[in-house]
Every structure is written in structure tokens, then in C-alpha cells.
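Homework-ish question, so no full write-ups if that breaks the rules, but can someone show me the predicted structure for this set?
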Amino acid sequence: MMLPQFHYHRPQTVDHALALLAEHGEEAALLAGGVEVLNGLKMGALSYGHLVDLKGIAALRGIEKKADTIVIGALSTHRQIAADPLIFSHYPAYAALHGRIGNVRVRGAGTVGGNLCFAEPHAEPPVMLSALGARAVLDGPDGRRALASEDWFSRPGVFNQGKAELLVALELPLPGRDFRCAYSKFNHLERTSASIALAVSPDPVPRWSIWCGAISHRPVRLAAIETALAGIGPSHAWEAASPHIEAVTASLEAWDDIYGGADYKRHLVSVMFRRAIDALMADQNQGKVT
Amino acid sequence: MSAEDSKPMRRDYREKLDGSAVFVSDITLPGMVAASLVRSSQPHARIVSIDTTAALAIDGVISIVTGADLQIPDPRWGVAIKDRPLLAMEKVRYVGEPVAMVAASDERTAQQAARAVVVAYEPLPFVTGALEALEPDAPLVHDDIEPLKDYYFKGGAQPVESSNIFQRYHYAHGDMEAGFSQADRIFEDSFDFPMVFHAAMEPHCVVADWDGTDFTIWSCGQSPTAVQKVLAGIFAVPLARIRVISPFVGGGFGGKASVKIDPLAALMAFIIRRPVRLCLSMDETMLTCRRLGATVTTKIGVRADGTITAKKVRIVMNGGAYADTGPAVAIKAANRAIGPYKIANLELESLAVYTNTVPGAAFRSIGGPQAVWATESQMDIAADALGLEPGEMRARNLLGRGESVRPDLRPIDVDMSEALGLANQTIAALQADRGDRLHTGMGVGISDPGIMAVSSVIVRVKTDGSVLVLSNSVEIGQGVREVLCRLAAEALAQPLESVSVATPDTALAPFDWGTGASRSSLMMGLAIDAAATDIAAQFADLLEASGAPRPQTLEFAEGGMVADGVFISFVEAIHAAHGIDSGEIIGIGRITPASRNGALRMQPLFWETAASACAVSVDTQTGAINVRDYVSVADVGKVLNRLSAEGQDEGAAMHGLGHTLGEELIYENGRLANGTYFDYRVPSILDTPERFRTILIESGDGPGPGGARGMGEGAILPIAPAIGNALAQGLGIRIRTLPLTPERVWRALAEKADAAGDPRP
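A: Not a homework solution, just the prediction itself:
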């Protein structure tokens, strides 16, 4: 099917984009890579009178180190993130995740900001970003604010930006020495059935960040496992976590859908958790700051 | 030259690679407009009103037609049962059914207007499952249908009145009671096969033109003459005034067989008298047709040594909202459930049932994979229970060459035990160099292609020795154009480069039943042989007419012929007879059931068969199956183009990998829940086995040219049971429902562990 008619805007600045959003309200949608919005419009699932194309805004591009954070511009494509030296050296598993998303066309066009804002429950970047402690930077009429990943998706299919706000960047804390991360997922269809992202900072004692994704409308922190693993390194992590994993996954909210029944997905979470730990172990150099 | 080279190229590859190959969607005509369909949002509902006011007001909209204002001779059509309105009339029967059609200056405007059409519905109770549709209180999908006899297939549908059953087929031989009483064990098992999508690369597309007296249709259909026939009925236009042209088609697999969307574009062209292009999206193609899902219950009586004493099969197929070719699918499913086995006492019952879902249709080996999934799974169940090796269980029952599957059908014409033996030996050899131990399984399948022996071809020999083949066999990617060139080159002993095949066009090429049922190379090959004989006779006439004695022997040679030992070029022969060096010889090859002394009358013309073996590994924690090695064996009689033949065999098996591992159209609340490629995943190159071996046996005794049989559909038959059997053999789990999704495999493993008191995987 073809795109229906709409008014096309191509602002050059964030302020202009915000003004257009304020002017057109519910009638306007933001257009980044177009992977989701354009397909939705073609299929008739979405309908907007105005599209505000962000691709002309240079300030939304680029990946750079700023003090103790890495800032990823919202318009960074999957391909750019996968190939970015900063990301690759600090968060190789996160780079790899973007390198495998969708297909080559999706990776070339799709952006991390668009992916987050579309809030597709099976999307892959949000769970890893959560594990890495990323914060979303929003700009709006009342200025900038940062949103922790716990607050990204409070309702299904909705990213928590204000009506007149714009996601401009993601901020990732610069990892310390010997930081490691891993990501493991399972899918038999195009979209993911269940995934695990984990990160461990060894200094001064191992501290874990463990999130599961795709089984309900948002990534969820496995806090009980993080606690159980506090002070324990990757080589003993499975041993320490396995007594708790069944109880933890049993309490997870999971949806029945074509990607799997809820109990199957909970089971997959524990399998993926084990595999993510194995992935951490498999490459001792993975995630090392160089 | 030989019709077979080791790995010959196909000349259509270059056109397809450089983009010059013409498909229907490339056709543009002066004044052409775009059509778009308004589709039902309801599974079953009365149409209360259709408001086109807002849509008509859109700039560029030319016309909107609904089922309520069809001013044509006969708005209902079908190929086995007349049950289908061109556009929904009074009520809708599935989500996605065409309700109205818009014509506009361009496609975007047409689609925008289609969205602006407002349809009010009064919902009716609906039914999407075939077994539910058989319940006495199930809503009736149709209350007024008209079966057609000998219209597209020989015979007709047998609907059951006041029910949703649009086809009931029954067959029996022997004495069932006696047969089962001779058995030591009786096995009764039920198996489910999902509705699946054909997934051809090209969605349906048609361009139609009506000039007030004649139709010209550029069709992606596999059966141009069926399109002619249906349009003739709808519009009361003579067949001779309906011209169907078939450019390259981007895959059919039965989804473009018989007639699909051509009547819709023709309708709009008829109304507005302008060329109309209707090009569906892939999502719309998923709402156009699909394979019939099935529940197959099979009961066998077996002696302790594995001999089958009786077999009773009951098949219930989900036929969707309109019968389409479903009545034939139901018959073939029944026959294909027998297997290549000696069954002295046999009873088959097959039902095809209306439901409020996308119409079921022919799909690569119609009814075959559904039936073979059940039959071949059950063979392993019985073998396991009797303590026999699966190969041994089959060997006890396999028909020998020349023995009858059914007394009224042609005896089986291939050696199935040779094919199965080759498959098993090859898979075993492939395992020898593997470090890890894989799970292996096997399966066999046979099918009786429903080939109507009605095909003609025209072969024109020009003075310069070039040859033009005019045929209505459609190039659907299978390589038929190349095969026709090779067969004509061989029959006339001319170099391959001198032969060309014209784009199929019913105004130029003679009648052919259609491109399907593995028939084209075979039927057109026979027709080309007949045309070559005709051409030889005409040259003999020419030589005689020019004053020479009629030659006693005449054989073709490059550029001409050798008559009584003397070479004469084509132009010399024509010049001598015509007095000028111009003219041509027009050879006609006709195949009818009476051809070849009636040898083509007996059904089936040949048996299309497959034996397969696989080696799989399973991730027991996720349930994901990885098919590592696969062997596919078929006796195709004679390979005409090895590259294409192997490609067809591999393609059929990999097509079947889809319904085996993941493909399934899922209905929720009357709607297709996964009707896009986002959620409906077909296998990609990454899913193919690490090693795939195709073994084509050339016994040279088929009915086609050089002893060829038809091929291209067999290998889709046994893949699902072979993989299911590998799971049973290796992991002790028997899954009776396709597809074998990771979740189903994991659940089966978990159940098995629970039953044994073991920890779950």
C-alpha cells in the first residue's frame, strides 16, 4: 500500500520541531528513520495529518563522550551504533545488538530514538539500554530533563515523553574498569520472544544490572537476582543465581501472544539469563575498556 | 544437442537480474487508472449500508462500485462451486473480503478513497474453525450455492445440504470390518495441519482493458484459459473476445491457479471503459487465498509383523469463505493419505468445510502435505509400538512398482523402496563425519497429480531456421520457457539459440488447461513432439508439391532436414513450394485424453513421489529445531534441466520447512492475527539445512518427453513427518500439530519430563 497524504515538515532545529509539535498537537507525528511510522501509515494502522521529519536536525546526531557519559544522538541509526568505536569499545554487546536488529534496510534507516519512542514491546534496544543505566534526554517547552529507564514505558505501547516533548539523546554512564555486558535473546518469529541484558561492574566489588525484555510491555529489572549476585563475579554467577531464578521468573509479568505463552517466556528468561552469563564468561576481554 | 546439459543456464535469469523481465505490475497503458479494494472488517455480517459520498468527493476518484450495484449478466462465479460474488452482496463472509472497489487517477488516491468508504455492518455469528463449523448449531456461511460439474476439474463437488460442508468425498475398497479384525494392534491418531500462506514473491496484480466488445487481461494467473472462461460467464462475452496475456509471474504455488483477482479488475474496466490496474499489497495477498488447514484422523490395523490390514482415514479441511479449488483439494488429500502402501481394506472420507476465513485454495501438491503429515507420523508411531525400525515397518507395506494403490488408479510406476533406501543411506553417510549425534527421521509421500490431458502448442518454423513456440504455459519461475525451448530444439534438431518462446497470450497460443499439477513440461513436451511430427509431415507435403517424389525418410537437421539422405534447408523447401523464398510452416501439437492411443486417459498420468530423510538437532531448553542435513529423493523419470529440476526439488522441501517449523495463519476473534510479514515468518536462507542433497532418479519410464515425469511438488510432502519422526526417535516426543514451533517442542519435552518425574529442560 502507498502512503496516504500528509503535510510534511522538515525543521532544522529542535526548537522549530517543538514549535511544530505544539502547533499541530495530536495531528502530528515525529518521523525519524520511518521504519515504524511509515509502515503504520501504509497499512492504515496509523493516521496523521502532519509528519515532522527530524532528519534535518544536526543536533540529534552523533555519538560522543562528554565528561563521564556517552551521549547517543536520538537519530543515530542501528548501523551507526553497531559500528561506532566508542560504543563498540565500551559496550560491545550493545553494539552487537544493533548490528543484528531487523535486516540491513532497517539497520540503515531505523534510529535508536525512533525505536524507543515507538515503544514496541518486543523491541531489543530498550532492555540493553536499561541494563546499561541509560537515561533518555527529553527537550520540551519547560526545558530539558532526563528520564531513567524505569520511567520510559509506564503504559503499553507508549514512551513517556510529554505531548510537546522530543527525545533528543540517550546518556550512558561511562563504564569503569573491567566492566562487562552481555545480551541474549530468543526469537522464532521476526520479533523477540524473550531477552536478557546484563552488565557487571567489578570495582570495588561486583555489582550487577540485570533486565529482561520482550515478555510484557517493558523491560523489567530482576532486582532479586541483582541482590543475590551482589559481590559475586561472573564465574560464580550462575551458581549463585540458580537457586533464585525459578521464583524470580515465576513472578514476572508476561503476556500470552504469538511469540509464546507467558509460562514459556518466563522459562526462556531463565534460559537466556544462563546464556548471557555464559556469553560474559566466553569472552574475558569483552567489554574491557581499551 | 541434448535437452539435458549438466548445469545449464536459463535465459530468463539475465532478464530477471537486469530488471528487463516484464511482470504484470510493469504494464502501463494509455489512460490506465488504479483500482483499490474496500475490504470487510467483519468475519460475518450483513451489509447495512455503504456510504461512498466522502470517497467520491476526493479529487481524482473516477468510480466506486459495490456489490449492490453490479449491472452485469452474472455477478456470481466459482471454479467448482458458484458461490462467490464479485464484490460482497448483502453480506460479508470473512475479514478482508472485497466489499467495494474504487478507481482513481492514481494508486494513492484510490487507496485514500477506499479508506474513506464507510460500510455499516450488522454482525452475524461467525465460525473460523473447521471442526466448529461442523457442529449442528454452527452459523451457516452460505445458504445458496451452485455446484459446477466438469468445469475446471473433472467431476464436481458434493456439498451436504444445510451444513457448511461444501465437499464430501468418500472412497472404500475391501472389507473394513474383516481387515481390522485381522489386526493385532489398532492405532488411531489425529493430526493437525495449519492454514499457511503461499508466500510467492510477487503479490497478485492484474491489468484489465475493455473496449466495448473485447477484454484484454494481463494476468499473473497460472491458468489463463480459466480466467477466460470465468470472465466469459460473468460478462456474457464470447471466449474468443477475451484475450489473456501472461507476462513473467513471480511465483504461484497454486495461489495464482484457477482464478483469483482478474474478475475484479475486469469489472471496473467494464464499468468505466478504461484500462484498470489492480495491484495488491502482500498483506492483501494474504487475504486472498491460503492452503486449507486440516484435521486428519487415521486408523490402521496392523499385524505384529508390521503388515497393515486395514486403514480408515477421515479428513476435515478448513475451506474458508469460498470453495475456490477446495473440492479438488479434499479429494486429493484423501488419495494422498493412503501412502505408497498395500492396503487391502481401505476407507477414505474427506470433508471440506466453509468457515469465515480467507478462502482456501490449491497449494503445491494440493492436500498432500496435510495427508502425508498424518500418514507418515502414524507409520512411525506404529513402528515404535511394535518394536520395529521405521524403515522396516515401511518395507513390510511398500507397494512394488506396478502394484495398485487403488484398483481404479494407475499402478504405482516408481520403486519407492529404492528411493527410501537411497534417502536413508545418504543421511547415514552424512552422519558418519559428524562429531555430534543428531536425531534422524524419514518420510515418504506419493501424489496423484490431477492432470487434465488437454494441451496444445503451435510451433512456427521460419525460412531462416528460427523457431517460435506459442504456448500458454506460464513462466511462474519454474523455468518452463527454457524447457519449451530445449524440447522444441531437440524435437526439431535445431540449435537452442534458434528457438524462442513467446509470452503466453490466449489470442495467439492455443488452449492449455493451465500451469499447475506438475504438468507443463510433460504435457507441453508431448504437444511439442506432436507439433514436430506435424511439421515433418508438412515439409514432406511441400517437397512433394514442388514436384519431387514424396520422401520415404525425413529427419530434421540443423537449418533444415535430411530427406531420403539429402540435406535440404528450410528456406529451400519453402522456396521450392511457394515460388518465393518466403513463408513459414505452422506446426500444431494437440494433446487430448485420446492422444497416445488413450494412454493419457488413466489417472494419474504418473505418480509424483518423494522419499526423504533428515538429521536434526534440538535446543531442548528453547525447543528450537535445527535441521542440519536433509536428503530428498524422487524418481522424475528424466531430468530436462538439472539446475531447474534440483531447484524445484530443494524449493519444494524448503517451502515445506515453513509449515514444519513455524508457518501458521492464526485466527483470533475472527481476524487474522499475523497477516503481515512482520508476524508471519517464512524460512530464509539462514533456516536451510547445512547440507541438502537432492537425488533425482532417472528411470526413463515416465509418460513425458524422454521418459520424464512431472516434478516440483513431491518434495514438499515428507519433510514435516520426517522432522516430526526425528523428534520422536531422538527425544521421545510425538507432536501431532504443525508447525513444530520451539514452544510446542519445549512443551512436549516438559510434559515428558513431568510424566517421568524428571526435571524439565
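Now go work out the reasoning yourself. Hint: Residues 520-545 of chain B form the longest helix (26 residues).
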